[in-house]
Amino acid sequence: MLKHILFWGFLLLTSSRAHSEFSHFITREGSQLLDGDKVLRFAGLHAPELHRIEDDERGVCKADRRGWGQYFKWPTSDEQQNWIRSLVRSGQKVTRIYVLSVAQSDDAMCERQVHILPPIDASHMPRLNETAMQVFDNMIALADQEGLRLIVPFIDHWSWWGGRAELAAFYAESADDFYDPNSKTYQAYQSIIQQVITRTNSITGRKYFEEKAIMAWETGNELKDSTPEFVTPTSALIKRLAPQQLVVDGNYLTVLSTSLDDPNVDIISNHFYSSNHNNKPQTIVDNLTAIQGKKAYIVGEFGLLPLDQIQRILQGAVNVDVNGAQTSGALVWGFRGRRHNGGFYWHREGNSDYYSYHLPGFVEGAANDEQAVNNALRQAQAGMLGELNAPPLPIPLAPKLRPISQNRDINWLGSPVGRQYRIERKALNDNQWQVIVSGITDGKNQYDSRVDNLFTDTQALSPGKTYVYRVIASNESGESPPSNEQLLIVADVAKP
């Protein structure tokens, strides 16, 4: 616990005085989002795990009585920074994270921590988990430093993460009571909104409603049963608490006509998936037609499609114009980032051939055209800016080499937009570095950090001698500076 406190205290001392990339909030004028006096349009990857990791490496938690419950864990600060830098250095300006998680009955058996804890009793409101919210704080602080805007939804329609049904269970109510303004569940939902928006960030010292990195609050994720009676008081509460931040109506599949005239709603969002028969460019035309230029419009999630179909939707998002109104943003589902000690987190969508995308894209992700999808996103972002071609990727930053084990397993936190790596070694007092391997990647899909390593040095080394290692990243634009150095002292040969 002391280490935990000291860690976050260190971040408070160092990050609160760090440079901010933002001088103003994002605003809306009619159907357009504005970054200062410039129109903001964006294309990129949805980033659900910036504040909570679905740990597919461990598989399904068999102790969950539903039979499909996941394991979750918190990202490290290094991981959060790496992921945000990966998005920004890929050219992305805005991402949408996933919802705050609500406590479930089997959390303890599945070693899950959540954001929203049960109330002390049914007469009280739910509580925020301070450990979880400090991770959230750090995400916001890093997004502010690196120049990434966030869309933050509150509560999930679905149960896998812990959503409205789990919130209702605190008060022996049903999932549908979430949408009833007279229910205890809705009262609890309002309390959560207030607790979150008025929270003081432990890293920046600012209230959440003062954080320019938070572009918009969303009423929830895929709230397909929401009604005007739900949206109207919810959007009014959010706007009253955070007047300088935008509000997204988290309704799903349909456009509520009442939201178009609601002064507290700024953005209409929709999610496109084949199971809903709307995963196509025509949905953009239909949505923009229904919105009538009264609000900004984003495609908050889409994907799980072949490359050509993703490209067609992206081109629709860039080019479709309905009486002067265009799509403000489009986010492909979904992104997973690098692990602290090497490799990537990964996720397979059900039994499909679609996996989460890794940046900047690797040959290991060829099954779902990972590199090509990332290139299409970069090209779409250029199109949103009125440019013909995406700029080249920047030169990678230095990787972070982790301590080397006695069996010479070598692992590192990969460089944002780094595509391949070279490992070098020298004796402690030598000046000349020796290349021991080059052209390797950290992009393996279904990487299992419990058994996998990025590289093992099997070359003969002198017993009792000390060696120094470093790693250098590269991509099509050039090479990174060398990583930090790590020592390996080779064990002496046992004497008779």
Distance between the termini: 46 Å
How much helix is in the residues? 10-25%
CATH top level of the largest domain is: Alpha Beta
What is the number of domains? 2
From the alpha carbons, calculate the radius of gyration and give it in angstroms.
Answer: 24 Å
Number of strands: 24
Count helical runs.
10
Poorly predicted runs are: 1-10, 12-17
Shape assignment: globular
Structural class comes to alpha/beta
Q: What's the pLDDT, averaged over the residues? A: 94
Largest sheet: 8 strands, parallel
Strand order of the largest sheet: 4-15-14-13-12-11-10-7
CATH evolutionary superfamily of the largest domain: Glycosidases
Give the second-level CATH assignment, the architecture of the largest domain: Alpha-Beta Barrel
CATH third-level topology of the largest domain: TIM Barrel
Strand content: 15-25%
